[in-house]
Amino acid sequence: MRQRLASVQDRTTAILKDLEHYRLSVENTSDGILLQDLKGRIIWCNDAYCDIMRVEKSDIIGRNPMEFAFPDDEQPSQAEIDAFTYDPTDSRLKSLQLFRNKRSDGNLFWSQLSVAFRTGAGGEDYAVLVCRDVTQQVEREIYLEDLTARLEHEATHGNLTGVPNRGAFLNFIKAALRNNPDGTVGLLHVDLDNFKMINDTHGHSAGDAVLRHTAQTIKSRLRKSDMVARIGGDEFVVVCCDSADLEYLGAVGQRLLGALANPFTWSDRSLIAEASIGAAQCEAGNTDAEDLLIKADFALYEAKRSGRGCIELYDASLHDRHAHETRLASELAEAIDTGTFDFSFQPVKNLWNDKVIGFETLARWIHPDTGRVYSPAEFLPIIEDIGLLGELDMISMMTALEKKASLARSGFGDLRISFNASPELLAHPDFINRLIWAVEASNLDRNHITIEVLETNNFGDTAETSSQGAIIRDLKQAGFQVFLDDFGVGYAGLSHLATLDLSGVKIDRSLVSCILTDDVSFKIVRKAIELCNDLSIAVIAEGVEDETTARTLQDMGCSLIQGYWISRPIPSGDIVTWLTHEQVPHAAIS
Ligand code: C2E
Ligand code: CA
Ligand code: CA
Description:
Blueprint lengths: L1 H27 L3 E5 L5 E4 L1 H7 L3 H4 L17 H6 L13 E6 L5 E12 L5 E9 L1 H22 L9 H14 L6 E7 L2 H8 L1 H16 L7 E6 L2 E6 L5 H15 L3 E3 L2 E3 L3 E7 L7 H17 L5 E3 L2 H23 L3 E9 L4 E12 L6 E2 L1 H10 L3 H21 L6 E6 L1 H5 L3 H11 L7 E6 L13 H10 L3 E7 L5 H7 L4 E4 L1 H4 L6 H16 L3 E4 L5 H10 L3 E3 L7 E2 L3 H7 L9
Parallel strand pairs: 11-12, 14-16, 16-17, 17-18, 18-19, 19-20, 20-21
Antiparallel strand pairs: 1-2, 1-5, 3-4, 4-5, 6-8, 6-11, 7-8, 9-10, 13-14, 13-21, 13-22, 14-15
Helix pairs in contact: 7-8, 13-15
Bound molecules: ligand C2E and calcium ion (2 copies).
């Protein structure tokens, strides 16, 4: 008997302990806990729930939280509340749910709810709700989602124009080509014609406005399935996913050009975004994005070449030209790699004493298969395009220096040599080092070496040290001669004479060749010679084809003459023979 009593006491103690544990847990958790009947009426709740809702327990017992826990704009009607009944078989209630709830002071918060259903000892059904305030977590998540979306947008869209950038464009076109293997993808490469001018004359904010205007003008004229992206400074691309053929694409391009030709107002100024367009349509089965890009780019190049402001379509004839130029480009790259160029040398003569003073080095390219001789006018633009002009000029420079050394060995040590230096050569990191090294190695007189530079608008670069002007000064200081080539047809002619430390100029053939027939050219050439003489810099007249022109120039005060009248450019191996046959007796020729 005592034993049974002891065991009842133990069980009672255990039950009480259990109850105490329950009470401690339920009343001290930060989660709100509710016991409801299946109509949602609160039978019991813990203090945490009251804290979360900021309510008194006595005020809510017997009420359905739907009456007070929802924000005003989501408040269910009384009829809906009356009709509410929990369905314990509803599987949706098993998962955690997120609600926007309202505290009694009107503050909103995010509440995460879980519901479980239990049947009490008397057979009555209960809903047990756990309500957790997750506002901080949700707000953090929303913030992070927002941030991710913003970063993603910034990574794929140009900030300035709001249209996608190069990376997004490449993804888009690759997907478009994959999804449309039937050849209905067309590409327009749009490039502004006057962007630099707008930046220069109206400032960068105006340039930005033009870019934004261009992006929006194009975007507003495309179908939803198409895309416009900005892929470079003033370069845009349009991908048309439903382009039936090149004709359709051409019509889209024409429409865009028409729209862009309309001026728009910015800051009380009228601006215009003139553009050129290259268009290429993909072929059925060809899903190579790179290929399509190259074609549109080539078409754009042709559009620029044929006068700008127009659209050029990549069709069969353009394809043939492109294929030809691509082949030439790779053959020329090979020629540069192996140094297999040919050079001719054109003499310059001083008419006062009828003496040859030196030669200009001029590049030629003999095609390895056909033997055809290509002139610089044919191959220089291609070499420039493939970024190898500096390399070619380096070969030309070394050839010139070798020629100077070999002429000296043949007894013509007093003859000068000149070579043409493109901006690419002047900017080549090895240029001055290699020049000086080669000159020292062959013990050449620096004063006999002339670098012919073309007028470019880079002379006045504000970054003084990297500008060509600074390089020219360095060359002069190192003892070399620097001549301004093609004088009279470049950018800022006369101002360069004052700012650049030049040894001399070469007056362009286009002016010289018509001094006898064109009064204006005559006057320009006469003034240019006068100016050079006043400034004590040398002047060479180029492209002199007859004696009358030569004597006229001499009368104007220019006695250094280059041109067919003296000689055409001479192949390397023939120079000594040519010099030997020159009437002027050279001391070194026996
Ligand atoms: P440039 O430096 O003005 O060279 C003179 C050009 O005029 C040469 O053409 C020459 O053959 C041509 N010429 C000379 N006298 C006469 C004449 O009396 N009548 C006519 N009709 N033409 C004459 P070329 O050799 O075709 O060179 C053309 C241009 O290519 C050169 O013009 C030069 O700017 C450039 N060039 C040539 N070789 C090189 C090179 O190695 N590097 C670079 N960067 N440019 C080069
Ligand atoms: Ca030249
Ligand atoms: Ca020239």
